[in-house]
Write a structure and sequence with these properties.
Number of helices: 13
Strand content: 5-15%
Shape: globular
Helix content: 40-55%
CATH superfamily of the largest domain: Type I PLP-dependent aspartate aminotransferase-like (Major domain)
Radius of gyration: 20 Å
Number of domains: 2
CATH topology of the largest domain: Aspartate Aminotransferase, domain 2
Structural class: alpha/beta
Length: 365
């Protein structure tokens, strides 16, 4: 018999689109949240160099000493409050470790809606209770909307900035308000900051960890430098929590490939500003082309847009788009509502042009 924890979990809506793409002939793919470029050459060369030197066996679960030292320096420059770090199997691995260590069965985790697809299922996997609160229509977190959900079982609040799927970036004032709310109820904040480098319009990255010490910061290299298949992320938080995460990782992921960790040292120092500017240009192009056809909150970061379907049915629009060989992700993959859909502008200029033409045609049809 299938376990109770798994029988009611369903495949990710993003993975369903991924599977569709494998079956379609040359689709215009604006669905998947991966980089449009390959891993930069200096980072690839460093991984190969260490692989060829024989750094291919198990290493310490917490991560290589030199990488952890570099991560400490990176975080300290940002004024983040933390004690220690652990290198993880991507941010998805980081999130699961966090839940395993912090959340007991029956405890509640507050999650904004819309949200990244794994948050609620991962909470359910550890037998916690996800409690969603709406951030529509502007996708901002308002503490007055969360307060009614807090109970004696509430353990943590998840935030994601820059945000997937909306592209929203929380301001310093918003982060301070969230921190004050968490402090009032003595909650953990679990912060997904995988898109820390993807900021537009001259915005400076601010972390909730600057304002609240009871935070688990989760970051990684998958998005910034196209290393999604290399599975490397990290967590920064209190030392007692890190020590238990080490134990949880020993019995699950074991360790991150050591040559990938060496490459991450180069990635930490890599100047990707030109790539970020290219993403900003793509954002500007797609937004300018579609803003008169859809209601869209202009993204400030990440590489997604979350437009509202003209008839309020984003799922139906995605189905119609698929019929025209365009892949998008329905809003219901991220939300209790189905009014929106997600566009990834992390794509070639040619695909963006084709996708925009199809979307405009769908509105006119």
């Amino acid at each position: 018999m299938i376990s109770r924890r798994m029988k009611d979990l369903h495949p990710s809506g993003i993975r369903r689109i991924f599977d569709l793409a494998a079956k379609m002939e040359n689709p215009v793919n604006l669905s998947i949240g991966t980089a449009f470029f390959d891993v930069p050459e200096p980072i690839k060369r460093e991984a190969i160099r260490w692989m060829e030197k024989g750094l291919n066996q198990y290493v310490g679960t917490q991560g290589l000493t030199d990488l952890r030292a570099a991560l400490h320096r990176h975080l300290e420059k940002q004024g983040v409050q933390f004690d220690d770090v652990i290198v993880t199997s991507g941010v998805t691995g980081a999130f699961l470790l966090t839940l395993l260590v912090l959340v007991d069965p029956g405890e509640e985790v507050l999650i904004p809606d819309p949200r990244f697809v794994m948050y609620s299922p991962a909470v359910e996997l550890v037998e916690g209770v996800p409690k969603l609160f709406s951030t529509y229509p502007d996708f901002r977190i308002r503490v007055e909307d969360i307060r009614p959900l807090v109970s004696s079982k509430t353990k943590a609040l998840v935030i994601n900035s820059p945000n997937n799927p909306t592209g929203v970036v929380y301001s310093e004032d918003e982060l301070r308000a969230i921190a004050a709310f968490a402090r009032e109820y003595d909650l953990w904040i679990i912060a997904d900051e995988i898109y820390e480098h993807f900021l537009f319009d001259g915005l400076r990255f601010r972390s909730i960890g600057e304002f609240y010490p009871k935070t688990v910061l989760m970051r990684g290299f998958s998005k910034s430098w196209a290393m999604s298949g290399w599975r490397i992320g990290y967590i920064a938080t209190r030392r007692d929590v890190i020590q238990k995460m080490i134990v949880a990782q020993q019995y699950s992921y074991v360790c991150v490939a050591p040559y990938v960790q060496k490459a991450a040292l180069v990635a930490l120092e890599y100047d990707g500003s030109a790539l970020i500017r290219e993403y900003e240009q793509k954002r500007d192009y797609v937004y300018a082309e579609l803003k008169d056809f859809f209601h869209i909150a202009r993204p400030q970061g990440a590489f997604f847009m979350f437009p509202e379907a003209p008839d309020g049915d984003g799922d139906l629009l995605v189905e119609r788009a698929i019929q025209k060989n365009l892949l998008l992700v329905p809003g219901s993959a991220f939300s209790q509502q189905r009014s929106h859909f997600r566009i990834s502008f992390s794509a070639s200029d040619e695909d963006l042009k084709k996708g925009i033409a199809i979307l405009k045609q769908l509105v006119h049809d």
